[in-house]
Amino acid sequence: MNTIRMDKLEKALLPYEKQLQRQERFRRLLGVKEVEQPTYQRYITGPIERFEKTRMAFLCMRPDNPYGEELRRKFKERTGYDHYLSPLPYEELDYEDRIGRAMADASYRGCAEYEPKPFPVTSPAGRLQFEDRAWVSRLIKKVGLMLGADIVRITQLDPRWVYKGVDISHPYAVVVAVQHKPSLVNLAPSYFSWGSTADSYSRLKLITTQLTDFIRGLGYDAMYRETRGGGNPELNMVPIGLDAGIGEFCRTGRVLSPEYGNNMRLKAVTTDLPLQPDNPISFGLHDFCMACESCAKHCPAGAVPTGEPSDRIPNPVHNNPGFRKWWINAEKCLIFWGINKRKWPSCGGRCIAVCPWIKPMNRFHNTVRWLAIHSPIFVKRFLVRMDEFQRRGNRR
Ligand code: SF4
Ligand code: SF4
């Protein structure tokens, strides 16, 4: 590989090589460690079976889902609606929300309706051979960034995180993260913050379908994977994102990265292209979440737990046993979305908007990030209080 000159390729991807180097330097300066085992091991207490996707709270809203009768009954009783997605007529919304709703609907369309048939895999005769896995892994990451991803990392696909009944033989997952637009998510709960989620899913769909075509063009099998609860999910993205080192597990049950906090969405492309997996990472997030309960305090549904991780499962239908962790109560979250439909078609992530880790990456906030990682618990608590104080000031 090293003997072949590829000046044009290197020049074409130079901005993305630099972007990757900036990301690596950022993590190094913060003191983020690459570790052998993902830090979620501390939350595993027993064997984990592959989860049946029809038990997901989102999918339980479908009228024909046998696991969802109880949830649908409660939802209807509390909200008067059959489904959290049944739209309020535009004319019942006030002026600003009509514009927000139009933005959200437009943003959602890509992820909901774009199902391209991937390019055929280039025939074996045209398959490129890569002797250097590190080189081709970096190539895939740079192309992912070029297509619009904010972070791209690679992991070996752990079959425990593939939903039961889904058959995937590819050994690798290329994980793509896209940040929600901060000015929209900061308005959670609102139509605008819901729009930021929808927009991220649509951009992810485009990026992962294009990355799939790129890998197939090199002569290897690849497939973009559905992950949305409202779609037909194949992969459970939280542990896969943790395995790939996108971030660590946080109190909201999501992946929290040093760069964007939990203000992002993830999707993956699986492939048989031989790649070099990245390591999971560790930056002491468990201790920070123990010092901070902002998401739990501000969740309007009371769906985010306070205190220590627990092995008390909120609902055996929607949750998989085998963990002592922070469990999100999906029923409370979904029912709340429906109750507040007039203003808040989904909550759109108040638990994200209030997280201290979603601040911009500038010198001041990066210094605070460093302190958040390396300081003792009383300093972490002080940082959380300062963040609350600043947020209250901004709302005035
Ligand atoms: S999305 Fe909203 S309701 Fe659901 S857990 Fe987050 S803050 Fe709570
Ligand atoms: S708001 Fe605080 S407790 Fe919640 S995920 Fe963010 S850092 Fe953790």
Element layout with pairings:
Layout: H1 7-12, H2 14-30, E1 33-34, H3 57-60, H4 69-79, H5 95-113, H6 133-146, E2 151-156, E3 172-179, H7 182-185, H8 191-218, E4 222-225, H9 237-243, E5 248-249, E6 255-256, E7 264-271, E8 281-282, H10 285-291, H11 294-298, H12 330-339, H13 350-353, H14 363-374, H15 377-395
Antiparallel strand pairs: 1-8, 2-3, 3-7, 4-7, 5-6
Could you explain the architecture of this structure?
With 396 residues, the protein is α+β, with helices and mostly antiparallel strands. The protein has one domain (1-396). Helix content is 42%, strand content 9%. The protein is built from 15 helices and eight strands. The strands form three sheets. The chain has a four-stranded antiparallel β-sheet with strand order 2-3-7-4, with helices on both faces. Strand 5 and strand 6 (255-256) form a beta hairpin. Helix 2 (14-30) packs across helix 6, helix 4 packs parallel to helix 12 (330-339) and helix 5 (95-113) runs parallel beside helix 8. The longest helix has 28 residues, at 191-218. The radius of gyration is 21 Å and the shape is globular. The N and C termini lie far apart (59 Å). The relative contact order is 0.16. The model has no long low-confidence stretch (mean pLDDT 93). It binds iron/sulfur cluster (2 copies). One iron/sulfur cluster binds at residues 299-301, 303-304, 328, 333, 336, 347, 349-351. One iron/sulfur cluster (SF4) is lined by residues 250-252, 256, 262, 288-289, 292-295, 354-357.
